[in-house]
C-alpha cells in the first residue's frame, strides 16, 4: 500500500501471521523500519500502546483481527480510532476471523482488510484484499492492468465466484453457528485442564474465536501429540501451518511471555460445522492417555518427578 506521507515507520503486532511479519521484514530492503507491538499474556494488543509508539513518520499499522494460533480477538475498532486520528493507514488480517465472527469494514474502521476463502469453506487459493476508497496500492506484479491495476494477470473467475458464494453462506449461517461452536470450545477449554495436570489454555479467556481452543501441555512436544492424536482419528495442529515445517517455537506464544519449554507443547483445536459434543468427549477421553504415555518417555517429566518426590 502507498501513502501520501513519505515516512518509513511500520507497526505490526508481535503475534501477526508469519506472512505479514515476513512481508514487513522484506520492506527493510526498501528502507522501511518495521517495529513490533508487544502483547499481553493473552495476546491482546493495547490501543494505548499503539498510541505511544506512533511516530511522525509512521505510515502503516497492521494488527490481525483474530489470531489463528491462540484465538484471541483484537480491539480493532479502538485501534482504528487511534490511527485515523493521526491519518495513518491501518490494515487488519481477517483471515482467521472471516466466516467465524462478524467482519464489517465500516464498523471496524480499517483502511485495508485481507481474508481467505478456505477459512469459510470456499475454494483454496482464493483470497481478497479490501481497500478503502482513496487508498492507493502499488502492484507487486508487473504486467497487465487487471483488478484496477492492483494485480496483473487474468482473474480466477471460478475462485472469485466460489469465494463469494461461500461468504454468502457463511454469513447466513453465522447467527446459529457461533453459539454452537462456542459451546464446543468452552467444553474443551474446561475439560482438558480438569483432566490433565500442567495443561494451560492459551489465548484470551473471553475474547476468542468461537471454534477455537488452544493449549500448552508441559513436558511433551506438540508434534508428538499431533501424531498420536492423528492415529486416533483426531486432526489438530500445533502452530500456524505457515511455520510448522520450520520446527521452531511459535513466535506467537513467545510474544505472550510463555517459556520456550512450555510453548513446545502447544496443541490447537479448531471446530467446524460438522463437529459435535461427541467429538469433544472423544478428545477428552483420548488425550489424557496420550499425554501420560508421552510423559513416561520424557526426560523433562522424569526430572520433574524426581524434583518433587
Please characterize this protein's 3D structure.
This protein has 309 residues and is of the alpha/beta class. The chain folds into 2 domains: 9-165, 3-Layer(aba) Sandwich (Aspartate Aminotransferase, domain 2); 175-308, Aspartate Aminotransferase, domain 1, CATH 3.90.1150. Helix content is 40%, strand content 14%. It contains 11 helices and 9 strands. The strands form 2 sheets. Strands 2-1-3-4-5-6 form a 6-stranded mixed sheet, sandwiched between helices. A 3-stranded antiparallel sheet has the order 7-8-9. Helix 7 crosses helix 10 (277-296). The protein is globular and about 60 Å long.
Outline the fold blueprint.
Elements: E1 9-13, H1 18-26, E2 33-37, H2 47-53, E3 58-62, H3 76-86, E4 89-93, H4 105-108, E5 112-116, E6 127-131, H5 146-149, H6 157-195, E7 199-201, E8 212-217, H7 222-231, H8 251-255, H9 260-263, E9 266-270, H10 277-296, H11 299-308
Parallel strand pairs: 1-2, 1-3, 3-4, 4-5
Antiparallel strand pairs: 5-6, 7-8, 8-9
Helix pairs in contact: 2-3, 6-10, 7-10
Amino acid at each position: 500500500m502507498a501513502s501520501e506521507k513519505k515516512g518509513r515507520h511500520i507497526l505490526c503486532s508481535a503475534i501477526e501471521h508469519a506472512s505479514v511479519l515476513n512481508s514487513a521484514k522484506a520492506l527493510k530492503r526498501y528502507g522501511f523500519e518495521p517495529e513490533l507491538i508487544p502483547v499481553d499474556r493473552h495476546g491482546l494488543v493495547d490501543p494505548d500502546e499503539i498510541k505511544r509508539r506512533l511516530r511522525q513518520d509512521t505510515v502503516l499499522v497492521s494488527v490481525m483481527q483474530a489470531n489463528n494460533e491462540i484465538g484471541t480477538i483484537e480491539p480493532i475498532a479502538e485501534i482504528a480510532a487511534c490511527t485515523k486520528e493521526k491519518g495513518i493507514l491501518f490494515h487488519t488480517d481477517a483471515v482467521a476471523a472471516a466466516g467465524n465472527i462478524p467482519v464489517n469494514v465500516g464498523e471496524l474502521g480499517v483502511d485495508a482488510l485481507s481474508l481467505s476463502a478456505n477459512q469459510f469453506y470456499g475454494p483454496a487459493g482464493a483470497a481478497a484484499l479490501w481497500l478503502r476508497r482513496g487508498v492507493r496500492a502499488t502492484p507487486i506484479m508487473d504486467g497487465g492492468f487487471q483488478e484496477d491495476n492492483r494485480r496483473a494477470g487474468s482473474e480466477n473467475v471460478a475462485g472469485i465466484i466460489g469465494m463469494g458464494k461461500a461468504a454468502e453462506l457463511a454469513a447466513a449461517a453465522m447467527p446459529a453457528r457461533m453459539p454452537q461452536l462456542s459451546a464446543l470450545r468452552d467444553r474443551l477449554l474446561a475439560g482438558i485442564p480438569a483432566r490433565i495436570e500442567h495443561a494451560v489454555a492459551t489465548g484470551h479467556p473471553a475474547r476468542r474465536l468461537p471454534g477455537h481452543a488452544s493449549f500448552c501441555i508441559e513436558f511433551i512436544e506438540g508434534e508428538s501429540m499431533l501424531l498420536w492424536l492423528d492415529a486416533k482419528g483426531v486432526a489438530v495442529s500445533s502452530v500456524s501451518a505457515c511455520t510448522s515445517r520450520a520446527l521452531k517455537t511459535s513466535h506467537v506464544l513467545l510474544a505472550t511471555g510463555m517459556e520456550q519449554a512450555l510453548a513446545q507443547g502447544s496443541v490447537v483445536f479448531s471446530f467446524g460445522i460438522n463437529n459435535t459434543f461427541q467429538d469433544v468427549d472423544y478428545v477428552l477421553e483420548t488425550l489424557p492417555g496420550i499425554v501420560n504415555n508421552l510423559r513416561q518417555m520424557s526426560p523433562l517429566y522424569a526430572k520433574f518427578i524426581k524434583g518433587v518426590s
